[in-house]
Amino acid sequence: MRIEVKPDHDYAWFIRPFFWLQKRNYGQVLIPGKCWGRSPRLFAAVATLYGVINRKRSPITPVLRSLVTVRVSQLNWCRFCVDINAMTLIKRAGSSEKVEALAQWRTSPLFDEQERAVLDYAEAMTGLDGVSDEQVARLRPWFDDDAMVELTGLIAFQNMSAKFNAALDIAPQGFCQLPVQPERGTAPTTSVAAAPIKSDTSPPQQDKPLP
Fold this sequence. Notes:
single chain; mainly alpha; 211 residues; 0% strand
């Protein structure tokens, strides 16, 4: 961790309810929120954008959203993001199979044609080579222009979030069991199970606190 977080009571008054909600849902305050919270206006802007991207009526299904966030997290070497987003994918997909196979999505039979097209687009946006017309064309059977904006915004936001967390070396908080850190240059993956969270709640799919 490359910066220090402050005690909860030292943050702006309008940030503290976000921390309370995170503690209710996850059993702990999320460290990235405390880092963003050092700039209250920036925190408010990022939290608002995330709430819109992750809203319940998004044209991008919850499982697709989670596939994107986990894969982009892996590619950006964000250990915290892999941890929390993999937990969410396991809950939304109903099993850990897609989490385990995600790094091999091109060859795994677990992923359908739509998921492959979305993951290909997400990897192209995240990498250095950029997006091709062919990759966009493969998305068109499922996404009109409005949905393309939503999908592109989701991928862009997750890249921002993952790069922020990775640059500050924010550690995982135990939402999934993570393997021994592989060599640098190999994307981290998750193991088979999500760590338990509070039994009476689950991570909300709308206006979820800053990841």
